[in-house]
């Protein structure tokens, strides 16, 4: 039997409730944490309002945006991957020296002797690939749910800039291990810069030499060497992350200010009657204002998403080593030399186009075209929910472009072998194989130039006659821009067909100024 | 909030915790620690000092900036410089040569090959993807002596490399291949072969490991099997005849070619070559001619003593390089000299068939006039006394 006095004493000594109350009412505690944690609407609001990081969220949000099938968490996951890459990258910087003498051996040290160096580098590498992938699909999902439409046009433009920065971050990081994969992928990529019109030494209308052109600016030399490594290192670790951080904050701020685009959908019975989302919302305006607290509804989902991504990445990093090939050897070009996978589609286009088109003009048109989408697509329908019916034209164009981009990547990355020959995945590579192409010929300019003009002309003239109302809704400038961009997009597969079926090398050719189409 | 969120949170947390432990476990028990602990236990037993068994484990490395490498091999091969471990099992045995070539001065990989920075057996021994220089098999380590020792004559331990050089001279490899810039133009420069990047070797027909030595060895044994060409893409098979070498001979020549590479070693480690031998004197012009025949590697194509028998597919002369023992009958001495000076391409037996891979190079810029005179005397002397009539083989 216990002595009642001693238990009472013990209780007094270990009165946790009393202790906790004392701590939580102390000046120190109250100066740091400004509200309690009881589940009250007030605290739910304060969780977000009084926290600098969570403050990028609104206090309340529409439940439609919480559904996993709406965002797939892609935007949040992109940003989480950026944070993860910053953290792992920071740690990697402690072990890495950007010099040709040390860079490769530092990779080997990370692999074999640095404590946790191997999972660290694996995670950085795989997270980088995943981020490029996720960012691309984040863009696609925002497109399909009309998230870029008024008033969010400019945030889409910022998103396209972030996409470009993601590519550049990944591309500059690609060089740093200083192995064969690195220098040749970067050689392929930067040779495209040398093909820029006007500012590239090998491009059309060039006004510069190999010693002062765009490639020289990137590499600090004519080939990939020490100065290129240093430049890429500084860009990868300082310049680009800084730019990304600043721009991503604007991206978030705008999402916060413009609200999430997700709208509630009419009940099934209404939809079966053929009531459109917009009509239903007009009749039931209150539906749009139904909101739930972000804490915990959205924050918990974000947390679980990052947790699952971390688990997946860590598991993969413990299984699969980040690629590291032989040490960089500028005298030994691997066959094939491939660009990083996300540029393999453009590299594939080198088969059909001169480098200045495949490497400079097309990417520029793609970026400008993407940025122009919100200003060209004035269709007010389909904002905040996935729909095809009410925006057939936009969805068709985007799907074609995005699908084509992914197809080209798949071909360039998986189906090309030595000599850029076509190999199915189950076929072994044969370095001797050369498939005869047959003689290619150029269309004479007096045929080719009118043909090109006719092609663009048809894209401008035909839809206007066939779908009068569509053209009128757009207005002349939007209509012309849309059709010229669409024509440029369809010119690519058309040229591929001309090349493969009719053996046409150039549609129009001006060898004197290096300008061939 | 939906229940699935709680479940995912639970599963994710459990998964992350498990993975964390897996990672720590992977990190905390590396392969090399097992070997090192085993070594110290063995050392304690061998020396009778039980306290040695408790030596703290650590990664050991030899950093050699002048060789541009860091070797961590001694992390597992701890006993290389411990004389008490002469009879210990590998990886703990004493290195037979540790006093002459101390590991802290030379490291390991400069002679043995392998990936010195790696700390797992498979990666360190280097037969892994993207590592160009795996560990050399025991019979081939001798090749590395030649990196520093330019004079192998009488060098203890390098006897097999001397034998290899003798075989190389006797077979007349120099007739087609150059070595350090001296030799025939028909095939590759041999000092460039062993250091080539691995993906310049075609390993599709090699049965052994994915390493330069395996390609070389199998190519010596049967050149046509390893480089059969590719008829479909118009790539001819190798021109190198199959000399039906024994396994031992092929291994010697492999060692010789590996040793012909010139990796970067500090000049202070180079051991000077032999003094130039005095010019030999010959009793007769025929004697001198035989030496000339040997010197320029005529043997490789025309056979020992000019007896022929070396294949040259689709050559007019019976698909073989012509033997020389009957030249006295078909040519005057002046005609022979002209032919050697100018060289000759063999005529195709089947005019639509492939080009015969071997041809007679132009010798006029290489061979001295006196040498040519002696060579022709020697060739004429080859005519067998009991020959029946021209063109018939005995």
Describe the structure.
The complex is a heterodimer of chains A (517) and B (394). Chain A has 517 residues and is an all-alpha fold. Chain A has 22 helices and four strands. Chain A has helices spanning 4-13, 16-25, 27-32, 41-49, 68-71, 74-93, 103-112, 117-144, 153-175, 180-194, 214-219, 226-258, 268-272, 277-283, 285-289, 294-319, 341-349, 355-376, 392-414, 445-466, 468-474, 476-502, and strands spanning 60-61, 292-293, 509-510, 515-516. In chain A, helix 7 crosses helix 8 (117-144), helix 8 (117-144) runs antiparallel to helix 9 and helix 20 (445-466) crosses helix 21. By secondary structure, chain B is mostly helical. Chain B has three domains: 30-135, no CATH class; 143-269, Cytochrome Bc1 Complex, Chain D, domain 2 (Orthogonal Bundle); 285-381, Cytochrome Bc1 Complex, Chain D, domain 2 (Orthogonal Bundle). Chain B contains 15 helices and four strands. Chain B has a two-stranded antiparallel ribbon. The longest helix of chain B has 26 residues, at 3-28. At the A-B interface, helix 7 and helix 16 of A face helix 1 of B.
Quick recap:
Chain A has 517 residues and is mainly alpha-helical.
């Amino acid at each position: 039997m216990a002595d009642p006095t001693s238990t009472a004493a013990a209780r007094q000594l270990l009165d946790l409730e009393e202790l906790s109350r004392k701590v939580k009412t102390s000046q120190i505690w109250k100066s740091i944490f400004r509200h309690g944690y009881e589940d009250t609407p007030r605290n739910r609001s304060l969780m977000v309002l009084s926290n600098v990081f969570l403050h990028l969220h609104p206090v309340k949000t529409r439940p439609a945006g919480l559904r996993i099938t709406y965002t797939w968490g892609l935007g949040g996951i992109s940003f989480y991957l950026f944070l993860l890459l910053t953290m792992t990258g920071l740690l990697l910087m402690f072990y890495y020296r950007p010099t040709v003498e040390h860079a490769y051996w530092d990779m080997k040290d990370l692999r074999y002797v640095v404590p946790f160096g191997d999972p660290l580098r694996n995670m950085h590498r795989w997270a980088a690939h995943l981020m490029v992938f996720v960012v691309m699909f984040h863009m696609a999902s925002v497109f399909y749910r009309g998230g870029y439409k008024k008033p969010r046009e400019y945030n889409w433009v910022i998103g396209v800039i972030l996409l470009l920065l993601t590519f550049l971050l990944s591309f500059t990081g690609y060089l740093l291990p200083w192995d064969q994969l690195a220098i040749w992928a970067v050689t392929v990529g930067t040779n495209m810069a040398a093909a820029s019109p006007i500012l590239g030494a090998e491009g059309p209308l060039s006004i510069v030499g190999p010693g002062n052109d765009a490639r020289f600016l990137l590499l600090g030399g004519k080939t990939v060497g020490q100065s290129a490594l240093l430049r890429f290192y500084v860009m990868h670790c300082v310049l680009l992350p800084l730019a990304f951080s600043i721009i991503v904050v604007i991206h978030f701020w705008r999402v916060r200010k413009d609200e999430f685009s997700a709208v509630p959908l009419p009940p099934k019975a209404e939809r079966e009657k053929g009531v459109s989302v917009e009509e239903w919302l007009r009749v039931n305006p209150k539906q749009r204002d139904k909101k739930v607290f972000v804490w915990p509804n959205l924050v918990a989902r974000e947390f679980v998403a990052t947790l699952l991504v971390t688990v997946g990445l860590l598991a993969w990093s413990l299984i699969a080593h980040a690629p590291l090939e032989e040490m960089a050897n500028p005298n030994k070009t691997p066959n094939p030399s491939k660009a990083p996978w996300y540029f393999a589609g453009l590299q594939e286009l080198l088969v059909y186009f001169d480098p200045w088109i495949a490497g400079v003009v097309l990417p520029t048109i793609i970026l400008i075209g993407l940025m122009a989408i919100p200003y060209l697509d004035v269709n007010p329908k389909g904002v905040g929910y996935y729909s095809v019916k009410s925006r057939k034209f936009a969805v068709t164009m985007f799907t074609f472009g995005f699908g084509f981009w992914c197809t080209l990547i798949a071909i360039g990355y998986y189906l090309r072998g030595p000599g850029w020959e076509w190999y199915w995945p189950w076929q072994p590579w044969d370095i001797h194989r050369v498939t005869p192409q047959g003689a290619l010929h150029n269309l004479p300019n007096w045929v080719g130039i009118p043909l090109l003009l006719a092609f663009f002309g048809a894209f401008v003239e035909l839809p206007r006659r066939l779908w009068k109302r569509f053209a009128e809704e757009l207005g002349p400038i939007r209509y012309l821009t849309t059709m010229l961009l669409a024509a440029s997009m369809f010119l690519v597969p058309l040229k591929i067909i001309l090349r493969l079926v009719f053996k046409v090398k150039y549609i129009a050719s001006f060898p004197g100024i290096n300008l061939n189409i | 909030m939906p229940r699935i969120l709680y479940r995912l949170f639970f599963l994710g947390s459990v998964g992350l915790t498990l993975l964390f432990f897996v990672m720590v476990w992977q990190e905390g028990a590396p392969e090399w620690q097992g070997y090192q602990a085993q070594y110290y236990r063995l050392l304690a037993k061998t020396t009778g000092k039980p306290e040695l068994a408790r030596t703290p484990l650590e990664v050991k490395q030899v950093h050699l900036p002048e060789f541009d490498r860091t070797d961590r091999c001694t992390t597992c091969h701890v006993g290389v410089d411990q004389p008490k471990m002469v009879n210990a099992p590998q990886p703990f045995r004493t290195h037979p040569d540790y006093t002459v070539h101390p590991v802290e001065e030379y490291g390991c990989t400069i002679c043995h090959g392998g990936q010195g920075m790696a700390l797992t057996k498979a990666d360190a021994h280097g037969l892994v993807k993207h590592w160009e220089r795996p560990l050399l098999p025991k019979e081939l380590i001798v090749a590395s002596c030649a990196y520093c020792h330019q004079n192998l004559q009488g060098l203890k331990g390098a006897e097999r490399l001397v034998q290899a050089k003798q075989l190389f001279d006797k077979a007349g490899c120099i007739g087609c291949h150059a070595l350090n810039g001296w030799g025939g133009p028909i095939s590759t420069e041999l000092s460039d072969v062993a250091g080539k990047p691995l993906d310049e070797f075609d390993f599709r027909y090699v049965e052994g490991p994915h390493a330069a030595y395996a390609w070389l060895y199998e190519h010596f044994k049967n050149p046509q099997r390893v480089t059969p060409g590719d008829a479909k893409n118009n790539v001819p098979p190798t021109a190198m005849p199959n000399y039906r070498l024994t396994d031992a001979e092929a291994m010697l020549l492999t060692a010789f070619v590996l040793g012909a590479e010139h990796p970067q070693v500090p000049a202070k480690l180079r051991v000077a070559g032999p003094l130039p031998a005095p010019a030999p004197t010959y009793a007769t012009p025929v004697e001198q001619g035989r030496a000339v025949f040997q010197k320029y590697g005529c043997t490789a194509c025309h056979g020992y003593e000019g007896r022929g028998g070396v294949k040259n597919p689709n050559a007019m002369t019976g698909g073989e390089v012509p033997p020389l023992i009957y030249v006295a009958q078909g040519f005057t001495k002046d005609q022979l000299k002209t032919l050697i000076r100018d060289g000759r391409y063999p005529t195709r037996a089947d005019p639509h068939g492939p080009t015969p891979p071997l041809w007679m190079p132009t010798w006029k810029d290489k061979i001295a006039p006196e040498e040519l005179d002696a060579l022709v005397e020697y060739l004429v002397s080859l005519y067998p006394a009991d020959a029946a009539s021209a063109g018939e083989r005995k």
